[in-house]
């Protein structure tokens, strides 16, 4: 019994010693860690700091943008005198001082071919280049096809449909050119983009249209003149065509007879040139033939008086050919 009590006392003492060793106590101070200073970026123009290859760190984005790349050579080609003259001629055309005018519906009107038109447009806006009605586009080529968008559109229908080229820049401060080929002509344009300035509509005046209008005007005037003015210069309105032609029908039968108030004119067909010319006689109130003074002028007889009744005679006897001329209202 005494041995059992002694063993329990020894186990209790050992347990107390173990708890004392594991009990928390004051923490000893550790080493002081200095604060991390923010990284300093290299000054502008300094080279990119060297580092391990990107392949060694695929999950880490580069800290600095890559250096700019020169896309165009800083050198310029040397021009021969002939090439320089060619450039000067082109510059004189592109720099022509011909100014655009205002057209219908606010369109800016350029005279086609007189100078190099400039289309000013802005981002988030579209500009409309209106072509001639009935004209169709074959090809569109743009110097900067990445930042400029040119697309076709149409208005109207049928043969009178109008083609529009819609221009849209994606950024400001851009300058390039475009060439639009159609079934009628070639358009060469300069494209400029600005932040706010833009031209909603652009159209053209065509010199050949004006020439066609003048040609149509002259043709109409000539037709009117032919209808109202004789080839002799006489005005039809001042002439009396009230004559009736009767009798035989030879090749030289007159085309028409008229008077101008003082003279009588008998116009013949061209066939009379190759046949015998008939004689012109006046017919008096008694029905008898009378001599009349007349002469041949071009393709017609011109009698020196106003004839009420007359006859054209060719041949004699039974073979005589007779064509009678009677003024209307006169027997």
What distinguishing features does this structure have?
331 residues; alpha+beta; Immunoglobulin-like; 3 helices; 19 strands; 30% strand; rod-shaped; disordered N terminus; Conjugal_tfr_TrbG/VirB9/CagX
Provide the fold topology.
Blueprint: H1 2-22, H2 81-94, E1 101-102, E2 108-111, E3 118-121, E4 127-130, E5 137-142, E6 148-155, E7 162-169, E8 174-182, E9 186-193, E10 201-205, H3 207-228, E11 243-247, E12 256-259, E13 264-267, E14 279-283, E15 289-290, E16 294-297, E17 300-303, E18 309-314, E19 321-327
Parallel strand pairs: 2-10, 3-9, 4-10
Antiparallel strand pairs: 1-2, 4-7, 5-8, 6-7, 8-9, 11-19, 12-13, 13-17, 14-15, 14-18, 16-17, 18-19
Per CATH, the architecture of the domain at 95-207 is Sandwich
**Tally the helices: what do you get?**
3
Structural class computed from helices and strand pairing: alpha+beta
Q: What is the general shape?
A: rod-shaped
CATH topology of the domain at 95-207: Immunoglobulin-like
Q: Stretches where pLDDT falls below 50 for ≥5 residues?
A: 1-24, 44-48
Strand order of the largest sheet: 1-2-10-4-7-6
Please give the CATH class of the domain at 95-207: Mainly Beta
pLDDT averaged over residues: 83
* Count of strand segments: 19
């Amino acid at each position: 019994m005494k041995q059992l009590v002694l063993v329990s006392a020894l186990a209790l003492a050992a347990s107390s010693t173990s708890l004392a060793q594991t009990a928390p106590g004051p923490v000893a101070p550790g080493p002081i860690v200095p604060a991390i200073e923010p990284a300093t970026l290299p000054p502008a123009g300094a080279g990119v700091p060297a580092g391990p290859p990107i392949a060694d760190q695929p999950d880490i984005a580069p800290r600095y943008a890559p250096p700019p790349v020169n896309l165009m050579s800083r050198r310029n080609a040397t021009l021969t005198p002939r090439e320089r003259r060619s450039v000067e001629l082109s510059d004189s055309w592109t720099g022509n001082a011909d100014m655009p005018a205002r057209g219908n519906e606010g369109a800016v009107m350029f005279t086609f071919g007189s100078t190099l038109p400039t289309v000013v447009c802005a981002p988030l806006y579209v500009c409309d280049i209106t072509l001639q009605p009935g004209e169709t586009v074959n090809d569109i080529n743009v110097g900067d096809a990445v930042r400029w968008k040119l697309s076709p559109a149409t208005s109207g229908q049928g043969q009178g449909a109008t083609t529009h080229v819609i221009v849209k820049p994606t950024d400001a401060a851009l300058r390039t050119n475009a060439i639009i080929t159609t079934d009628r002509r070639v358009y060469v344009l300069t494209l400029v983009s600005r932040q706010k300035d833009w031209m909603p509509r652009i159209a053209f005046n065509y010199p050949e249209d004006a020439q066609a209008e003048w040609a149509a005007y002259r043709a109409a005037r000539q037709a009117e003149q032919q209808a109202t003015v004789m080839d002799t210069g006489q005005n039809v309105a001042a002439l009396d065509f009230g004559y009736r032609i009767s009798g035989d029908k030879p090749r030289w039968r007159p085309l028409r007879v008229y008077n101008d108030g003082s003279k009588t004119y008998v116009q013949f067909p061209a066939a009379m040139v190759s046949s015998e010319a008939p004689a012109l006689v006046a017919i008096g109130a008694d029905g008898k033939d009378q001599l009349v003074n007349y002469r041949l002028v071009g393709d017609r007889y011109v009698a020196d008086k106003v004839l009420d009744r007359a006859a054209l005679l060719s041949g004699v006897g039974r073979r005589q050919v007779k064509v009678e001329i009677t003024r209307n209202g006169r027997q």
